[in-house]
């Protein structure tokens, strides 16, 4: 099992990503950490699904540039 600290280290984005940049996000809830299966953008202080534009209703604890 991947530890919380290791997973956070993999999502090493600092500050806020540019609003025109779709990124991968790491979220956390009472069960642990998980990566959302879709790219997100940080727009006007809120995380949004890059594909649908819908608000992310989860606690985002880290982000990183997409891995290809």
How does the SSE layout of this entry go?
Layout: H1 4-10, E1 24-29, E2 32-35, E3 40-43, E4 46-49, E5 59-64
Antiparallel strand pairs: 1-2, 1-5, 3-4
Major beta sheet, strand line-up = 2-1-5
**General shape:** globular
Question: Termini separation (Å)?
Answer: 23 Å
Unreliable runs = none
Question: Number of helix segments?
Answer: 1
Biased composition (Basic and acidic residues): 1-10
Region (Disordered): 1-20
Could you describe the 3D structure shown?
This protein has 68 residues and is mainly beta. It has one domain (4-64). It has one helix and five strands, in the order αβββββ. A hairpin with a 2-residue loop joins β1 (24-29) and β2 (32-35).
Question: Can you tag this structure with a few keywords?
Answer:
about 70 residues; mainly beta; 3-stranded antiparallel beta sheet; two-stranded antiparallel sheet; globular
In short:
The chain is 10% helix and 35% strand. With 68 residues, the protein is mainly beta.
């Amino acid at each position: 099992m991947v530890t919380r600290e290791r997973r956070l280290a993999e999502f090493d984005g600092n500050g806020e990503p540019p609003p025109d940049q779709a990124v991968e996000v790491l979220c956390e809830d009472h069960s642990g950490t998980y990566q959302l299966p879709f790219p997100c953008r940080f727009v006007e202080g809120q995380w949004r699904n890059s594909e649908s534009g819908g608000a992310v209703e989860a606690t985002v604890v880290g982000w990183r540039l997409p891995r290809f």
